[in-house]
Amino acid sequence: MAFVELKGVGLLEAQAHVWNHILGYTNSMSLKCALQLGIPDIIHHHGRPITLSELLTALAISSTKTDSLWRLMRILVHSGFIARGTNRNEEETYLLTPSSQLLVKENSMNMLAFAQVGVGPLLTTPWNSLGAWFRQPESTCFEMANGTTFWDLASQHPELNNLFNEAMANDTRLLMTVVVRDCSEVFRSLRSLVDVGGGTGTTARIISEAFPHIKCTILDLPHVVAASPESTMINSIGGDIIVQWILHDWSDEDCVKILRRCKEAIPSKEEGGKVIILDMVVNEDMRHHKSTETQLFFDMMMMVNFGGKERSEFEWLKIFTDAGFTQYKIKPILDVRSIMEIYP
C-alpha cells in the first residue's frame, strides 16, 4: 500500500500528532508531581490566588528551581488543573480549577486515592508488557508483571486494599451526590435494594439517607466488607439490585452469569423488580470527543490491569438479552457514565 504523500503543513502536523502521543504521559506525570508536592492543598489553604514566589516559599524548595516550578505550573494551566491570573502588582498568580478542587485532601469527594493508584507504578508498569502480552497466555498484563491478579494482591495487602476502597468510596460520594439529586425517580418506587460489589457501603448509605424508606444491604468480598463501618441503615439481603461500576471488571460471559443471578434474586417486573446499573456506555460520536476519549482510556486500563472492558450500548444489550432480561433503559446523564435500568 502506497504512502499518502504529505507536504508542508500536513507533514508537520502529522509529526506533531505523533510527538503528542509519544509524550502523552507528560500530563499524568506532571499531575502526579503536583500531588506529590501538595500544590492543590497549598493553593487551597493560601485562601487567595498565589504567586510563584509564594508557592516556592510554601513548598520550601530552593530558588534555583524557580524556573522549573514555573514550567510545571505552565503545563498544569494548559491541562486545565490550574487557572492563571494577575494581581495588582502585575505578578502572575495561580488558583484552583473545578478539576484541581477534586485533588484537595479536605474535599470529601477528592480523587487523591484514585490518582495515587492510577498513576502509581502498580498500574502503570504493566503497560510496558502490552505488546508481549498479546502473544502470552496470561489474562492481563498486570498478571504478567505481578504473577497474580490485582484483586488477589489487594486481598493480601491491607494498605493496597484500603487505598483502593478509599478511591472507590470517594468516587461513589461524588457520583451518588449527582444521582440522588438528579435521578431520584430511579429510586422512589423501591422498597429494598442490594448493592452488589458495594465496597465499604458508601452507595447504600447515601441512598438510605436520601430515601429512608429503602432498606439497603451490601454484597462484596469478605476482606472488603470487613472494612465497612457499621450502620443501622443497612439491612438484610433482598429486593431490587444496584450494580455500580462493577460489571466493567468482568468478561461478557461473567457479566451474563452475574446478571442471571441478579434476575433470580429480584421480584418480577410486575412487582417492580429491576436491576440498576451505573457504568460506562461507550459513545464513539465524535461530537463528544473528550468524554469518548476518557471512556476509551478506561477501556484500555481495564484490559491491561483488570481483564474487564467498557461497553457500547449494543454490547450491553447482548449481555442483558443473554441474561434473560426483556427490557432496558439507558440514561446518559452522568457524563462518561450512565444509569441503566433492566427488567426481568
TrEMBL record:
Record GO terms (molecular function): O-methyltransferase activity; protein dimerization activity
Domain O-methyltransferase dimerisation: start-end pairs: 19-105
UniProt source species: Tetracentron sinense (Spur-leaf)
Keywords, ordered alphabetically: Methyltransferase, S-adenosyl-L-methionine, Transferase
Family annotation (Gene3D superfamilies): Vaccinia Virus protein VP39, Winged helix-like DNA-binding domain superfamily/Winged helix DNA-binding domain
Record's protein name: Uncharacterized protein
Keyword Transmembrane (UniProt): no
Lineage: superkingdom: Eukaryota
Residue spans crossing the bilayer: none
Entry keyword Methyltransferase: yes
Gene Ontology BP, a term: methylation
